[in-house]
Predict the 3D structure of the following.
Amino acid sequence: MAKYRLLRERILATGLVARTDLLVPPPASDSELLRAHSPDYVARASAGELTEREMRQIGFPWSPLLIERSRRTSGATLVGCRVALAEGVAVNLAGGTHHAFRDHGAGFCVFNDAAVAALAMLAEQRVRRMVIIDCDVHQGNGTAAILRDQPAIFTFSIHGAKNYPFHKEQSDLDIELADQTGDDEYLERLAWGVDHAIELSHAELAIYLGGADPYLDDRLGRLALTKQGLYQRDQLVFERLYSSGIPFVVTMAGGYARKIEDSVDIQFAMVELATKYTT
Ligand SMILES: [Zn+2]
């Protein structure tokens, strides 16, 4: 969790973003969460009534703050979508909680911010079609499952074949990578995937999950991308979205480098790059 605080502190210390441009997001409301999650799950998660087994699957102890944080994480991506439509780009300094399913959480994810935000944009009739580009090293299984029957939201995930989750869901487009895949192969396959996702989705807005965990020294990654390779990854995605006229929201997703500063370096570079795409 310290990664988030360190990232925020570095953004303020370097003056990348003025303090007044760093906003506290509103919590997602019940009705916003219920587009992606079941009423029973939202009610029990909010009231602290999930079973021990359900909490173990999430991986955090329950607390009112956990629920507050999870609601605001979804709220941030949702508001980020509105901001991106007006200004070209927005960044959620958390988010990317892609292992949360309709009726349960998992893998440090309580509510699925990308699904909540994308479904809100459709419900608010702000866009007709969206794309979710998930470059976290772990498959966006919850996102794929929640949005399986949503033809207006195209899900693309590029991830480690042998990594968590061991049972994969079917996204609209999945690219599976072997352990120790490095920069060149990754970028080549990503370029193909992003081009296809953009072409097939006809998206008017994108949500990007820029996990730092494909990094070579990540404890949970199993891939071998360098910091430079990860920067090129972000650049490739941003450039292609931008040149296709698609505004985008950037979310952080995972990052578990042996040295926490490495995860922060990778995500700071991504945020810095994203700020250049303000229209
Ligand atoms: Zn991950």
